[in-house]
Amino acid sequence: MLTFNGPVRTLCNGVSRRDVLRLGTLSVGGLSLPQLLRAEQQAGAGDSRKAVIMIYMCGAPGHQDMYDLKMQAPAEIRGEFQPIATNVPGIEICEHMPRLAGIMDLRVPLRSVYGSPDGDHDSFICYTGRSKRQQPPGGWPSFGSTISQLLGPRNAAVPPFVGLSPDTGHPPYGSPGHPGFLGISNSAFRPSGPAQKDMVLNGIDAARLDDRRMLQRSVDRLRQARDNGGMLEAMDSFTQQAFDILTSSRLVEALDISREPQHVRDRYGEGDSRNFGDGAPRNLQHFLVARRLVEAGCRVVTLNFGRWDFHSDNFNGMKNTHLPQFDQGLSALISDLHERGLDKDVAVVAWGEFGRTPQINKDAGRDHWPQVGGGLLAGGGFRTGQVIGATDRLGAEIAERPVHFGEVLATLYRHLGIGLETTLRDFAGRPQYVMDQRPPLPELLG
Known about the structure:
The chain is α+β, with helices and mostly antiparallel strands. Helix content is 27%, strand content 17%.
């Protein structure tokens, strides 16, 4: 029997599930694989190559230690890092990100991101652009789940939404983005390391698979006689998608980075696949897998990286573990997409849930600062080589061009062809806009 096992996940709707695929039952934790892969066809979705890679920087990195250094501030605020010039005149970033400095023309630092309602650690704001307060019945869906619902798969053998985020000690750090009121059928597909080998027909040839498919159809016909609501009939197309995945090597090959030339793998690096404290790994191979997945047809890939919650020893933690590896992985991804001609099709966003305090505390750390944070955008055919937003002399308050999380996500929806007038039905049947009518960032649009 074909199986795919992973750790227990608890979804935002309270459902506990395992990433378990069984060929005999086509089930995922009691839910059908076809249901998990369900997608509605939409006019215009077609074979569009457009995709989004979202990198969640668990625990919120310090904006003033990455893209917004404050060299005119007192020492207890500016810290020990120095700025370096980038390949765009007049723009400087942290000295510990030399690779990203060399491709400043391909990206856009955001220096004035706001919208986190409090200082709690949660990926929710990054994946939804919304507060967790006053949610509709079922809860707000993530960007990936919304795209899964609206556009469905571009290729039948590749799920539209893949989450590379492994589980973490602090559960919100490990979320790939929850489906909310769109239901578990729009959850992220979550491949888990060694279980990749179980996603192929080991020991089962196509003829035997066809026999099982015929048997399943026979059983379904019997059940349909009692299915007054027609639900089983509606699942036929989703069942076909499940068999498409099982009979195609496309997804498995996308997850297999050994197919890449060694020099490409070296460019991305390996990082560290172990979780960092209660946060995520600094797994640089996930950046490469994300690129391979969007090439294979995935529309949205999410991944998590590190644990940036440095309440103590901030500068050693940043320069010795996080910044150099993040610099390598993200610069490799952005450059690779550009060199492959995918920079107009694939948008990349990297950010955390808020910023860090201007004042360095007694333990040489920075604490939570929801007033303002930072982020980075690349690709998407955006106008790159610029900075959006600014903070005051101390990096404490927004001084120029506030950028809400929702505006960034609205820009990404537009990139994928989703208009802000688009609505989805919550559990109560009420229509909900995909993004609260927040406008896309005009600075990015050609």
